[in-house]
Amino acid sequence: MTTETIASGRIVFCDFDGTITARESLELVFKTFAPGRWEPVRDKLMAGQLTVREGVRQIMETIPSARYSEICEFVAAIPIRRGLEAFLDFLDERNIPFVVISGGFRGMVEARLGTLTERLHRIFAADLDTSGPLLKVVSDYESDAELVAKAEVMALFPQVQKIAIGDGITDLNMAAHADMVFARDMLARFLDQSGIAYQPWTDFFDLRDRLNTLISYPSANI
After folding, report:
1. Residue 1 included in any domain
2. pLDDT digits over 48-80, tens only?
């Protein structure tokens, strides 16, 4: 993978599940299309007995490929958090690229964002091979623990201010490698425990206003 130069000197990396979507879309997919399989995997993940990479594969690769289009339609109906288009307008005005890094799957991201996909600089996510009877997970960016190694993806954009937006434990590594972090929910709690500074946020309108203040007045304490 080659590095990329960003003219504005800043770039935004944003999680998808539970961050762009108002609910944890991948968890909803698990519960709907692989009933009974998510809870034991979740417990092992929380106990450190499984990696995210292993857990997601274990569940997704039990789902018939014939249900993939149904899965995408299901994700397309999950609400998006308020203000995303306004936030993209704000970034466009400042020539700041918006990159989605999802620990889930490209097809689901594209299905939910629809025409907004055209406004993204890049999407980094895993893919699903539907050529066999069951879905098969394919990822160009996986590590030992992550299906999509978010910090490694961020490293493809050197010498820029990296702004991370997330909500969950899978965003912890991304937050640890960012220059500025916006966190909510479980990610915020983990960052409190880890002593990593972050800005809290509620929706993308809030993100726009907070980021505008921090860019305009870097020493502002908001």
Report:
1. no
2. 898 889 999 999 999 999 999 999 999 999 999
